[in-house]
Amino acid sequence: MTHKMRQALPLGLDVTKLKKCAPEPLQSQFVTALVLALGSNHHAEHYLARVREDLAVLGETNYSIAFQNPDFTATLEQPKPDYTNQCVYLALTSPTSLQQLQQIFKQFEGDCGRLRPLSRLTHTKNKYLPEAESGPIRQVTMDIDILLVKLSGQSDQDNNEWIIMADRYPFKAHENTGIVELTI
Fold it and tell me: In terms of pTM, does the model score above 0.85?
């Protein structure tokens, strides 16, 4: 598996100073770079490797270390397996709309066998289980979340033009750690 790796990331971001925006108004906007959070709690090594290959086809990638975290939704009554999480900086080969990227990432999740409760189904090609029959999904083969985007027309040096996806903020501790690692 070969990845094009950026030697120096144009991030160096202070996320507290970045604009936050809900994904909906950005759907038709073209994105040139993004920061993703990957997560898996079921055969993580296999599924993370698979998604890294898929992402490398879209552009240049750089990855934080992958590390294990407890599932923050787990309870004593409902234990869940730990997650392996990793952040990714992806500079796209060609600008792509946020809506298209979301569909591509949902397809990557589906290709990994991601199951979703019916009430959360957002893309008709994803596999799902009716929540009433399956209960909560405890095994997540792959979860891909968009944390930050850089829209087309913004230079790599214009770090203040990164936009935080408001539905993902505030970031979880492992996401903050991954973003900081990507900025080194």
Answer: no
Amino acid at 23: P
Q: What is the pLDDT of residues 167-181, one digit of tens each?
A: 999 999 999 999 988
Q: Whole-angstrom Cα distance, residue 34 to residue 165?
A: 10
Query: Do residues 105 and 93 make contact, with C-beta atoms less than 8 angstroms apart?
Result: no
Six-digit token string for 141: 């083969």
Q: Which residues contact 9 (CB under 8 A, 6 or more apart)?
A: 62, 89, 182, 183, 184
Helix, strand, coil shares of the chain, percent, nearest 5, are 30, 30, 40
Q: Decide if 106 contacts 123 (C-beta within 8 A).
A: yes
Q: Which residue carries 């160096």 as its tokens? A: 12
pLDDT digits (tens, 9 = 90+) for 7-50: 334 466 778 889 999 999 999 999 999 999 999 999 999 999 99
